[in-house]
Amino acid sequence: MNICLSKEQIDTLKSSIPYYTSHLETLRKLADVQMQGISLLKEINPSIDLSEFEEMNKLNGFNALLTISILDLITIVKQIFSTIQTWETLYFIRQGYLTIYESLKT
């Protein structure tokens, strides 16, 4: 089972990995800055309400989960279209299914 991608589709896949990798690094930096801000605010006022920061932390975590899943799926798709044997294709399809299942479950 050998399926071919167009040059445009291959280029899109190739350019997507650096884009999402950069996005994930940005999310990690935001999380670090946010944690530092929370620490400073707690020092200034230990009784401060940090619920907005907690909500932002959850949203950033969810965004990171989706970004990691997308990176996994892009890698899997690239492998699916480079396989020659049916067994390899089925393996990567199962990997993609499991990635989607685990992402939705989480």
What percent of the residues sit in helical stretches (DSSP H or I)? over 70%
The Cα radius of gyration reads 19 Å
N- and C-termini, Cα separation: 32 Å
Task: Give the rounded overall mean pLDDT.
Answer: 90
Tally of domains:
1
Largest sheet: none
Content-based structural category: mainly alpha
Uncertain stretches of 5 or more adjacent residues? none
**Count the strands?**
0
SSE ordering: HHH
Indicate the multimeric state: single chain
Shape: elongated
Tally the helices: what do you get?
3
Overview of the molecule:
This protein is mainly α and 106 residues long. The chain has one domain (7-105). 83% of the residues lie in helices and 0% in strands. It is built from three helices and no strands. The radius of gyration is 19 Å and the shape is elongated. The model has no long low-confidence stretch (mean pLDDT 90).
Structure characteristics:
3 helices; mainly alpha; 106 residues
Outline of this structure?
This protein is mainly α. The chain has three helices and no strands. The protein is elongated, with a radius of gyration of 19 Å.
Secondary structure layout plus pairing:
Blueprint: H1 7-44, H2 51-80, H3 86-105
Helix pairs in contact: 1-2, 2-3
